[in-house]
Every structure is written in structure tokens, then in C-alpha cells.
Amino acid sequence: MAKKSTVGGKKKKQSKQANVELAHALAVIDGFQVLPIQVPAATGDDDVAHYVYLKRHQAPTTLMEDENRVSEAKRTLFVLNLPVDATEADVRHWLRDAGAIEDVRFHTLEHWQEMYAMSGEEAESQGAKPMLAKKGKLKGRAATAAAAAAHKGTWSLGEIAATSLRPLLDAGSYAHVIFLEPLGLDRALGLTERARRWRDEPTMAKSKEQLPLGLARYQQAYALSRPNPDELEKRANAYILAHEERKREEEERIAATLNLPDEDGFITVRRVHRKRGNTDGKVTVKAIRPEQAQRLAPTGGKGKDVQDFYRFQQREAKREKLLELRRKFEEDKERIASMRANRRFRPY
């Protein structure tokens, strides 16, 4: 039994050394330090390793003019391959041994598809540009939905989902972690010697306080995408009012520029579609042509019935007409024969 435990201990030690060597190999090849994160498995006792890649942030030369940006770049860590449900508390937990963290700025590659084909340095340098965004502002689809909702008091289901559902990162997302001191950045780049746990008890408590994930998140999204009829009616009325307001403002703007000379003294002629008729908002009175009045006038009684409306009625009418012509032809033929017999037929 002692031999078995010794062999098992050697295997564990060898596997641990292999993992460390693999991490260093990846760091040398790709220029990133590999930080393994131990994630509890959904089934079974063995944890699953998720690898996060760390690198010193390299600010583009265009940002070197700002002194504050330079000092910030010297203590900024570039973190790649974040889990989709990672939060700021998770990142702070992984790097808590490195030092105090000032800010964590998440980014996504959703609008940067070309970065997937770039090297690590190119993607990292391109990703430095979104660092100018301030913390707390919406980005991407959430910003689009919020901008559409802010127009004329209307809102959309996407904006409600963006504020009511827990946001998730895209696969391959990255973040910039800004330490208080440059020493924290140096310490963070040396944290690949041992694996870090996904979450501890305080981090789990903070995660439970946030919006739900998994099946609960899908159920919440399903409920939000199907509002009650009263709420839907309010949104529809608000959208219609906003559309009418925009249309009225556009008409007023065009009417204000009619017959007015520009800076060069020219008058732009615009075609105006005038409404023919007078209206009080409820009833409209318009002029009518004589032929239209005759066509709309009642014919008396029940009106004139439409003849031969269907195709089979038209065929029957043609057949009856041919039979009538043939009958008249036979009658004329007999009458001519009778006149010849009586010598009364004089064709010339």
C-alpha cells in the first residue's frame, strides 16, 4: 500500500510539473503568461482548468502624448480569454496576490472580428483604443438599445433586456486590469506557478447577489420578451406619437425654407403636394369630376346587374348566339328556296 501511494504521489508531482512546463512553453511561444483557473466541474470530482493569458499592456504610440495615459499604461495588465460569465470580482480574486487593483475594464471582440486573425501584439495594441471608454458606460448592443430608447421617450425590448439581464461576455473577450502601482503588474506576471480557484466564498456571495445565470437567466429573458398587452400598447402609442412628432418637425422645417434665398441669393424650388379638399380633422370635402359623379350616382332600384360575370356564362352566351345565327340562316335558306319555286327570287 505504501508503494502505491508513493507511485500516486509521483504521478501527481509529474503531472503538476508538466502543467507548469506547458504554461511556460505557451508563454514563450505566444508571449503570454498562462494563468490556469480551476473551475469546479458540473459532474464529477475533478476540476476543469480554464487558461487565462496575461501580458504587459503595450499602449500605441498615439497615446504617448498624454502623461496620465503613459503612467496608466505602465501598470496595466492585458488579460485574454476570459470566461463568458466572468465579473470584476472574479478578476480581482484571481489577481489578489499581485497587489491592489484600481480598475478592471472589460472589452469584447464582437466588433473586432479581424483580431482573431491577428497576433497577440496586434490584437493587444488594437484593444488599447477602447480603454478611452469610461467605466459605467454602455457599449455595443446595450449602447445602441439605450440610444434608441432615449429618442422621444420610446424604448425597446432590447434596452429592457440590457438593463434587466446579467450581461455576458463573448467568447475570447479580454480586459485591461489597472493596478495602483507598477509593482503589482510585475507580480501579476509571475502568478502562473500555481493554479487559482475560480471563486472563493466572498466571491460566490457577490455572484449570488447579481442577476441570475443559466436556466434562470433564460426564463427571465423569455418573460421580458413577452410583455403584457397594456405595456405593449403603451409602447406602441409612444412610438406612434414620436413618429408623428418627427414628421411634423420635418414638415415645419421644409415649410420654413420655402421661397427663401440662400447665401448666394438663389431660391430653391421644391414641389409641394397640396391636399385637395377642405377638412376639419374629421370630415374631408373634395372636388369631383363629372364622369366620376356619374359613375358613383345611383342607377335607381337595385342597380344594374353585371351580365356574364363568370367564364362559363360567357361561353354559354357565345353558344346561344351561334345557335341563333344558325337558326336564322336556315330560315333564310328555306325562304329563298320557296321564292325560287314561286319565281319571285330576283337577286339582281
What would you say this structure looks like, in words?
Helices cover 46% and strands 11% of the residues. The chain has 348 residues and is an alpha+beta fold. Among the domains are: 31-138 and 167-216, Alpha-Beta Plaits; 310-341. Strands 4-5-3-2-1-6 form a six-stranded mixed β-sheet, sandwiched between helices. A two-stranded antiparallel ribbon has the order 7-8. The model is unreliable at 1-5, 20-26 and 110-155 (pLDDT under 50).
Give unreliable regions as ranges.
1-5, 20-26, 110-155
Number of helices: 12
CATH fold title of the domain at 31-138 and 167-216: Alpha-Beta Plaits
Assigned CATH class of the domain at 31-138 and 167-216: Alpha Beta
State mean pLDDT (0 to 100 scale): 70
Helix content: 40-55%
* Main pleated-sheet profile: 6 strands, mixed
Label the CATH architecture of the domain at 31-138 and 167-216: 2-Layer Sandwich
Strand content: 5-15%
Q: End-to-end distance, in Å?
A: 142 Å
Large-scale geometry: elongated
The fourth-level CATH homologous superfamily of the domain at 31-138 and 167-216 is: RRM (RNA recognition motif) domain
Strand order of the largest sheet: 4-5-3-2-1-6
| Order of secondary-structure elements | HEEHEHEHHHEHEHHHEEHH
- Global structural class: alpha+beta
Record field, number of beta strands = 8
How large, in whole angstroms, is the Cα Rg? Answer: 42 Å
